[in-house]
Structures are given as structure tokens and as C-alpha cells.
Task: structure prediction
Amino acid sequence: MERLIDLRSDTVTKPTPEMRDAMRDAVVGDDILRDDPTVIELEELAADMLGKEEAMFTASGTMSNEIAVMVYTRPGDEIIAFSDSHIYNLETGALSAISGVQTRPVHSNRGVYEPEELERAIQPEGVQRARTVMICLENTFHLNRGLAVSAEDLEETIKIARENGIILYMDGARIFNAAVALNKNVRDLVHFCDSVYFCLSKGLASPIGAIIAGSSGFIREARRVKQRLGGGWRQAGVIAAPGLISLKKMIGRLEEDHANAEKLRKGLEDLGVKIDRGGVLTNIVNLDLSPLDARAADLAAGLLKRGIKVKVCSEYTNRMVTHNDIGAGDVDYVIEKTASVLKEIRS
Result:
């Protein structure tokens, strides 16, 4: 097989040999009846790591986000979300189609609400107004940038939410990447949230799944909503087992992904590519080819011919994401081949 380096996302990671063994050997039970010991172990470990009362294993981040909205809102309510957030842009309109809520999008460059804009977004009480019920956070912020957001940066948002009695929910798909980048315990980044979810199937390399966590009352209702969505597991221990390895072993190696991403950034900058450095960076490399007058689609096509897959974000921007299947040698190869493609494009 020809060499293939897939930088489109950290969702493309393959389960490790240890994960495959764990799947085969997992002790299982019927999770809807709450007697799958592997799922229970995963949920209890995740809740403890996040500092929340309970946690629940779900099929995906999208399912987790929609469960949270369904628990907290009623049809006709309004939530506030970043205009560039996953929950607003990439869940096929589920907020309106499933929960019947409307979204008030607020722009941000760094995953933090400006206090004045946030206060304006909260709807005043009135018979003609939707109720503002929930404020959505995202960490890391922006799927094409991967910026880590500290709790200190969110202090004003937390204050405004508490003063107005509004739920704070965090889409923490890559929250462990944020914790590693900020050198913080993950609890420090989520303690103020009423609930939070994270992905097992991105940088943590599990083949499937996510975790949502919050109070016991929240999770009790979340289990009912999950069942309503068809998300009830039976012998789910076979897919929960890799999640245990993700939490016990894969978090510890995320720093390697960040180091490889930084090596990639520096190598691309040496080629004249503009790199997004607009915050605390993690494993996502956002590159802008406009200074070279090169198109993102042309770079992606040229790299694909050389066995490298990257994402096209816009006319001039691409995304490259490092993960468990990408080593330092792969980064060197990508830089070398990018130089060749850029030379070819500009000749």
C-alpha cells in the first residue's frame, strides 16, 4: 500500500491494538438495564475526571449536544451560541428540527463572548420574546482553528449567566487538548459549566463515542432523552472499552500531537504560508495561502497525489490536524511535499 497521511481530522485515527484487544475481551451487559460493567466504569471514570456528579456514554458529540439542549429547553426557547460553533453550523439544523429552539448567534474570534454583546443577546422578558435559556461554550474553539480557552477568559460570561439564571453548557469535544495546551487539570476548565461533553473519537483515538456529564438530575433526564433518540445501548461494553484506554492512556500523549502541529506550523511558515496564531494553539493547523496567491483546493489536490489528505476550508485556507497516527517523520514529509506542490502551483 502506498504511503497515506491523513490530516483532515483527528476523527480519522484508527483504534490502537490495545483498544482492539479490549473490545474483544470486554465484559458486557445490557446498558439500558444499567448492568454493563464496562460502560459503568467508563462513565464513573469520566465523571470523576471532569468533577461532575455523573456522566453518560453516547454515540457522538452531536448526540450529546442535542441531548443537552432537549433536557434544558422547551420548543420556542432561545439559546446563544458562537456563530462559528459546531452546534450552530454542523448538526443539520437539529436545534430547530429536534428541540424546536432558535439560536441567537454571536461572533467571536477566540471563543469568548464580549460582555456587552452577550448581554445584548439575552432577551428581555416579554410576551413577544423567546426565553433565553442556555449559553453555549466551545473548547477548543472553532473546528478549523482549535483554540484553547481558559476559565479566566470566561469569567465575565460566567458572571452574566449566573446573574441572569441562564444555563452554561460546554461543547468540549477537544477539552483534553485544551487542558494540555493550557497546562491545567480538565476540571479547572469545566467546573463552572452546568454540563459538558467531550469526544472519545477525536484526539483520544477511540473508534466511536462521546461522554456527557453534569448533575445527577441532569443525567437522569439525559438518559430518557438519549433513549428517545434511539441512542440506548445494549451490550455496549465492546465500544466503551476503548474509551477507558482513551482516558487512562491517550490523554497523556496529546502533547505529542501539539508538538507535531507546532513543527508543522513552523515548517509551513518557512515556505511563506500564513499560519493562524490567534490564541493558545493545539493540534489543529490553519493555513492561509493568500500571501502566495495559491488556492486551497489546488494545494489539497497536489498533496493528495502525493498521498496526503488535507481539508479545504475556504478559497485560500486549509486545515491540517495532527493525531495519534501522525509522527514527526510524517510532518517532515508533509512539509517537503507541500514545498513541492507550492512550487508546482506557482510555476
